[in-house]
Amino acid sequence: MINKAFSYCLTLLLLLVSVLANAQQQNTESGPVNEFFRSNGKIYVIVGVLVIIFLGIILFLISIDRKISRLEQREKSNP
Hints:
Helix content is 84%, strand content 0%.
């Protein structure tokens, strides 16, 4: 169980590091939509919402994995 938790944390950490590394790149795209979001500071709201959605999906998948593991253990113990 500790190995699974460690692997989840490590995966999440590596994902976060890669996202932060890509966030440092300069975006040279200039379009009306990009200029609008940057001028109003709404880009941070969009990034925040996306992070919350991805965290929700990750937590949901972890909970499903735990439930499936419990069911598999119960199935092994009761033939």
